[in-house]
Amino acid sequence: MAEFVVPRPAQVSVPVAGGGLFPVRRVYCVGRNYAEHAREMGNDPKDPPFFFAKPADALVIGGGSVPYPPQTQDLHHEVELVVAIGRDGFGIEVEDALAHVYGYAAGIDLTRRDLQAAAKKAGRPWEMAKAFDHSAPIGEIVPAEKIGHPDKGAITLAVNGAERQRGDLADQIWTVAETIAYLSQFVALKAGDLVFTGTPAGVGAVVAGDVIEGDIEGIGTVRTQIV
């Protein structure tokens, strides 16, 4: 049996509330899934969803700190509901989609906004704005068998104790089931995938020293500090 010629990368995993680890395969993110955030970014909330990806090793686990990333002067926070996929599927129907969910977590999509704006203007991909190292802090995953499938509840984010973002899961343009079904028309979803489902209005810049805390009612929290 052939051996690996360089050290094998570690399996990225997220702690599960109550015990165990969720092994991460891919991380998908929905762009603009709350109407007010779509408007604050100058977009039409009626547009269909679109997706981008982050590498699994961009996840920041257990309240770890985030080094302020290079090549930006405008790092933004975006609090998001994260869906953990527990069952494979392709071409999933909306009515079957929630059966593919293992659980939920609170997450933060960090964005190099100046790089994103430049990429948009030039019609280029967003990877360097979204998929950089340490760009996806995440809290514990709570199994759906314990909490069901929340479709309402406050989603908030505070910086240094001052609230900046507040929305409700009920404000999502595309529900979790609709998002899973739509995404699965393009790629086969697998157990171990995560889906960041978009952020409410109020995104803004953070700097070194800031403590960011996200909370989703009935699901949990996510915390990190920019260093």
From TrEMBL:
A GO term for molecular function: metal ion binding
Keyword GTP-binding annotated: no
Sorted UniProt keywords: Metal-binding
Domain Fumarylacetoacetase-like C-terminal residue range list: 27-227
Native source species: Devosia geojensis
Gene3D superfamilies: Fumarylacetoacetase-like, C-terminal domain
Metal-binding listed as a keyword: yes
Pfam family, one: FAA_hydrolase
Protein name, entry field: Fumarylacetoacetase-like C-terminal domain-containing protein
Family annotation (InterPro entries): Fumarylacetoacetase-like_C, Fumarylacetoacetase_C_sf
